[in-house]
Write a structure and sequence with these properties.
By secondary structure, the protein is mainly alpha-helical. 77% of the residues lie in helices and 0% in strands. It is globular and about 65 Å long.
């Protein structure tokens, strides 16, 4: 019993550390107007408060995951917490726009280290299928619900205090996580001395990911067919191709290509990217609808997301693991993503004069239920077939797919929304009608992303024995023997 309690205590510490990171992808959005006023950001430069974080975070996930496998996940986690906490102090006290952007970039580096290895550490702590399903449900809520909590917390801190506190609130949390992690996380296992970091491969993939994030997040402003955007994405593709060639011949590759011969690893990356595209878009577009169309204040927007967080927490912590143990990973994943698609579909019909109870709340509840059910099986699918010594890499890969899918999906849907809004305005529609029409089209496209993820996961994920009888035990195992999930 004591051992079980210690494992769950370690899980809480890991989830609290990851929650800090997830919060910072959304907590800043509500505070951007205040930051712009205080530090004198131009409209174009203001985007770098978000982009600097996304750039280093997305670019360093694979590298951080591999470092966790080579030098120890506990070491990488602790180092990431320290970096993130120190950077949070710098951001909260930043006297100028340049220092704030620099601090955000360092936050991204620390965030990548924490996120890339947290999932690996959890998989190592829980080997029993039932315990692992419950633990992954808890972690899934942190990953999926952190966005909603970030919007709420950002609205509360900015509305009641000042924008400085959206960063400074991380400091006591980071210090507490570091102290607790040193006590409760298991010591790193001895790493094979023959294993070496593939430095050329690390440089190639990190530069490729950073350039792609940079191109994606700036695509709406620069234009998707502009020389700048096409040049960045083209260079990223060339570097990625060079990385694949390098990994095929390297003695100790950063990412062994055989990892992607595992069907569930590959399929879960595709499902995760599509799901993140829909999820990121839902949070961003829903907040935009509430603020710009319905006229909600920052605090009111944050409070509007409370039902989503409550339902998501209940389904993640009390429902998802039971469904996985009863039906395996495929059917809960399909049901959860179908509910998310229905949520986005409902929002695609939200009117200009929408009422919260009838036009917003049903979508909030459906999204909470869908995300709470779906994230657990997505994570289990991504990690279940990987050997323990490569779990950090798999953890980094699934986080990268979420990150890249979310960034690209959000950029595409915002472009689609802008196109439709401009078209309606050109036809003589009023400002709010045109804006709402653009949001409706984007919500509809996001519903298609979630539906595609449900179909792909249902058709192509290989069943894993989770203790239920409905998913058959696979006859043959592909390439690498699965962890006992």
């Amino acid at each position: 019993m004591t051992d079980l309690k210690s494992r769950w205590l370690a899980l809480y510490v890991l989830c609290l550390g990851d929650l800090m990171i997830v919060l910072d992808t959304s907590i800043v959005n509500v505070a951007l107007p205040s930051i712009q006023t205080d530090l004198g950001f131009s409209q174009d430069a203001l985007a770098w408060v978000v982009n600097a974080y996304l750039l280093t975070f997305g670019g360093c996930l694979l590298l951080s995951g591999r470092l966790g496998d080579l030098v120890g996940s506990r070491r990488v986690f602790l180092g990431g917490v320290v970096s993130f906490t120190v950077a949070s102090v710098a951001c909260g006290l930043a006297p100028s726009s340049g220092l704030l952007v620099a601090g955000r970039a360092v936050q991204g580096l620390g965030g990548a280290a924490v996120s890339a290895v947290a999932l690996s550490l959890i998989m190592g702590l829980f080997s029993d299928p039932a315990e692992r399903a419950k633990a992954m449900g808890f972690f899934g809520f942190v990953m999926s619900g952190g966005g909603a909590v970030g919007v709420l917390l950002g609205g509360v801190l900015t509305g009641l205090f000042s924008w400085h506190w959206i960063f400074l609130v991380n400091v006591p949390i980071g210090v507490g996580v570091w102290i607790a992690a040193r006590r409760v996380l298991p010591a790193d296992e001895t790493v094979d001395g023959a294993a070496r970091l593939d430095v050329p491969g690390a440089v190639l993939v990190t530069c490729s990911l950073m350039l792609s994030v940079y191109g994606i997040v700036g695509g709406n402003d620069a234009g998707w067919t502009s020389g700048r955007t096409l040049g960045l994405l083209g260079t990223s593709a060339v570097l990625l191709a060079a990385f694949v060639v390098r990994e095929a011949s390297a003695a100790s590759p950063l990412v062994p290509l055989r990892l992607f011969r595992l069907r569930n690893v590959t399929v879960s990356q595709v499902v995760g990217a599509l799901w993140a595209a829909a999820m990121f878009a839902w949070f961003f577009l829903a907040a935009l609808y509430l603020q710009r169309v319905l006229g909600y204040s920052a605090l009111e927007v944050g409070l509007a997301f409370v039902p989503t967080s409550v339902v998501m927490a209940y389904c993640s912590l009390r429902v998802s693991d039971k469904l996985v143990m009863r039906f395996g990973i495929r059917r809960p994943l399909m049901v959860g993503l179908a509910l998310a698609a229905a949520s986005l579909g409902l929002f695609s019909r939200a009117p200009v004069d929408g009422i919260f109870v009838t036009d917003v709340l049903p979508s909030m509840l459906l999204l909470g239920a869908g995300a709470g059910i779906a994230f657990n099986p997505v994570l289990l699918a991504a990690m279940g077939d990987v050997e323990p010594h490569e779990s950090g890499l798999a953890s980094g890969a699934v986080n990268t797919s979420f990150m890249m899918g979310g960034a690209l999906g959000l950029a595409v849907l915002v472009s689609l929304s802008t196109w439709r809004t401009d078209a309606l305005a050109a036809d003589g529609a009023g400002e709010l009608v045109a804006l709402n029409g653009g949001l409706q089209v984007a919500f509809g496209a996001g519903a298609l992303f979630a539906l595609a993820a449900a179909v792909i996961g249902g058709l192509f994920l290989r069943p894993q024995p989770m203790g239920g009888a409905d998913d058959p035990v696979p006859v043959a195992v592909e390439a690498v023997s699965p962890d006992p999930v």
